[in-house]
Design goal:
Oligomer: heterodimer
Number of helices of chain B: 11
Number of strands of chain B: 2
Largest sheet of chain A: 2 strands, antiparallel
Low-confidence stretches of chain A: 1-31, 355-366
Number of domains of chain A: 1
Distance between the termini of chain A: 17 Å
Distance between the termini of chain B: 53 Å
Mean pLDDT of chain A: 78
Strand content of chain A: under 5%
Strand order of the largest sheet of chain B: 1-2
Structural class of chain A: mainly alpha
Strand order of the largest sheet of chain A: 1-2
Helix content of chain A: over 70%
Strand content of chain B: under 5%
CATH topology of chain A: ABC transporter involved in vitamin B12 uptake, BtuC
CATH architecture of chain A: Orthogonal Bundle
Shape of chain B: globular
Mean pLDDT of chain B: 82
Order of helices and strands of chain A: HHHHHHHHEHHHHEHHHH
Low-confidence stretches of chain B: none
Chain lengths: 366, 291
């Protein structure tokens, strides 16, 4: 393939650029495009208003589920920072989620720390673990990195069950924690409060990621994904940014884990198995790799689709789940974000056949 | 010393299972350039087919051949129907297709044959060997794995078809230009991998017993063995599989205090440590890419 064609393919296949509308080429910022951007802001504002009103229209169980959707979305966003922005691959994010959850649970259970403060603590612990894990990961790529992170996912439940640590972790039984009450005497119940609390954390962290992606650091992170050698030649400190990305990614997933523990009020080693990592990965791909709003779609998928499959047929739930997955991948090979992008291009009359054929993302192949 | 010997032998015996699976994993990786996460479930399904044929009153070898042939056809069909349409999709999307296939096969097997544990016969018998350190089935399993490895080596190195398959996996564009039908080579690779998986499944089933979830642990260890040995080297994968079995057993026994509870963790940490030193596995070629 000739270099110019390759260049175009790279531009087109970076989902994040289109999703965040960040680095849209200058010439494209004509009237239509700015109108579209304004429309986008309106859309986001409308979504926030709808999200804020939802707990008043649904039963508390639905509110609880929606809270969990946001928690999963946040965990998937963490994975997205690593895979979508930096092109590294992880099967170990269930471990970061679990470490975050246990940090929150132990702090609340043993030390009576307020639930709000467990989030920064979980984030800090996970950042440290992720950063340290990023150091050996520097030498590994693709499937070899997948195995190393997989080891992390397998190890965590075993370590949590490990005898000498039972004093803190509660062993196989896990830990129960109390449900926080709404503050300032707000006239809502605790499920609704947890929903709003999670929503606020989610919005803040989404905003932070968007800003990160538009910053000098974010561009460096994405440059490493698109062409590591070229990025290094341009003076990007590849090792530093890769380990930092690992840390930040773990931080996000860890905060999600802490929120998850508070929402479910219970942690146990086997809820953080390797299968959770697979769920995150599936959610990430369904939502669209590199897309921030796509993470919410991923969260919805992770929470609801297994239930839907089970409600269709108990005996064949797994098969139906698989078939739904296959249909989605056949219809939208680059996830929901890619689908929306195609639809937008089609509406704008700029239809190009097969623009996502060559993704630069997540290349665990030779 | 005797304990060590015993543990090494026991490790080699379980390692034989992992080696078998690792070989199947590397085979399909070479043929299709993807790691097939549904490989274990495909092997499990094939083994159930053999079991079903035996339930219908056929002898072992009829069931064996039927399972291998049907698996080959099934593997080709899966490639043609499921993976051909998405071969242009991003790599991680095909990963989701593998997860979907995994889920479908596992659930379908549970539905058709339920989740009760079934015994599976072995043609080698279970007579003790080497003063009880191993038995004839384990020896037979290791023998078959090594035999398969030899046959595959001859096939890939010595035949035109093997060469064409390697070319199609390594460089599809160039392979197509010299007249290789890349699509069919991939389908053939799937068929072969499914057949090897079927053989692996039928060798493993007498040890771990037949049920829909029998392959999960085995596949994960097989995967670890394949990566340890190097994904580009079938021989390395077999050695890697044995190594994983031995490391797991010896570490579990000899590292005091933490060994027994954390033996899986220790095995994986050791593997990652090896990868630190040799990032492409023990016997894998490191990849050189053109800038």
């Amino acid at each position: 393939m000739s270099p110019p064609a390759d260049d175009i393919a790279t531009k087109e296949s970076v989902p994040f650029v289109a999703a965040a509308g960040a680095a849209a080429p200058a010439e494209a910022l004509s009237g239509a495009a700015t109108g579209w951007l304004a429309g986008r802001h309106l859309l986001i504002a409308a979504a926030i208003v709808v999200a804020a009103l939802m707990p008043f229209f649904f039963k508390s169980f639905v509110t609880f589920q929606l809270t969990q959707v946001m928690v999963y979305a946040l965990a998937i966003l963490g994975l997205n920072i690593l895979t979508g922005f930096n092109g590294q691959f992880s099967l170990g994010h269930s471990a970061f989620y679990g470490i975050g959850a246990y940090t929150a649970a132990i702090l609340m259970h043993d030390y009576d720390v307020g639930y709000v403060w467990t989030l920064p603590a979980a984030g800090a612990v996970c950042f440290a673990v992720g950063f340290l894990f990023g150091l050996p990961a520097l030498r590994l790529q693709g499937l070899y990195l997948a195995l190393a992170t997989f080891a992390l996912a397998i190890a965590l439940p075993q370590i949590l069950k490990f005898g000498p640590l039972e004093h803190w972790t509660g062993g196989v039984q896990g830990l129960f924690i109390d449900k926080p009450d709404p503050p300032f005497g707000l006239p809502i119940d605790s499920d609704q409060w947890l929903y709003y609390f999670t929503l606020i954390v989610l919005l803040l962290l989404f905003l932070a990621v968007r800003n990160l992606a538009r910053s000098r650091t974010g561009r460096a992170i994405m440059a490493i994904r698109d062409h590591p050698i070229a990025a290094a030649a341009m003076g990007v400190n590849s090792s530093l940014y890769k380990t930092l990305t690992f840390g930040v990614s773990a931080l996000y997933t860890g905060i999600a884990g802490a929120l998850g523990a508070i929402v479910v009020q219970f942690v146990a080693p086997d809820s953080f198995s390797f299968l959770l990592s697979v769920s995150f990965l599936v959610g990430l791909i369904i939502g669209g790799i590199g897309s921030i709003p796509g993470c919410l779609v991923g969260g919805i998928f992770v929470l609801y689709v297994p239930n839907i499959a089970e409600s269709i047929s108990r005996g064949l739930a797994g098969a139906i789940y698989g078939i739904i997955l296959l249909i989605i991948i056949f219809v939208m090979p680059s996830g929901a974000a890619g689908f929306v992008r195609l639809a937008n291009a089609w509406l704008a009359g700029k239809w190009r056949p097969n623009p996502t054929a060559r993704s630069t993302l997540g290349q665990p192949r030779r | 010393m005797e304990l060590l010997l015993h543990q090494v032998m026991a490790g080699l015996a379980t390692g034989g299972i992992y080696a078998c699976m690792a070989l199947a994993v590397v085979m399909i990786y070479q043929a299709i350039d993807h790691l097939n996460f549904a490989q274990g479930e495909m092997a499990m399904f094939s083994t159930f087919i053999a079991w079903q044929v035996m339930q219908w009153g056929q002898p072992y070898w009829v069931a064996f051949v039927a399972a291998v042939v049907l698996s080959f056809i099934g593997g080709v069909l899966i490639e043609r129907v499921l993976f051909r349409p998405i071969h242009n999709a991003p790599v991680l999307s095909s990963l989701v297709a593998f997860i979907a296939l995994f889920s479908i096969l596992n659930s379908a097997a549970g539905y058709l044959w339920d989740y009760t544990i079934k015994t599976f016969p072995t043609p080698f018998g279970h007579k003790p060997l080497l003063a009880g350190l191993a038995d004839t089935h384990e020896a037979g399993m290791i023998g078959v794995t090594l035999g398969l490895l030899g046959l595959l080596y001859l096939f890939f190195r010595g035949t035109r078809l093997g060469l064409a398959m390697r070319a199609a996996a390594a460089n599809p564009e160039s392979a197509r230009l010299v007249g290789i039908r890349v699509g069919w080579m991939t389908a053939l690779g799937w068929g072969m991998a499914a057949s090897i998986g079927a053989v692996a499944g039928m060798l493993i089933a007498p040890v771990v017993f037949l049920e829909p979830n029998m392959m999960l642990g085995v596949l994960l260890y097989g995967f670890a063995g394949a990566v340890l040995g190097g994904l580009t080297s079938p021989g390395g994968a077999v050695l890697g599989g044995f190594a994983v079995g031995v490391i797991e057993n010896v570490a579990g026994t000899f590292i005091p205090y933490v060994g027994r509870e954390l033996k899986l963790t220790i095995a994986l940490v050791l593997i990652v440590a090896v990868l630190m030193v040799r990032p492409s596995g023990l016997f894998g070629r490191s990849v050189v890419s053109r800038v």
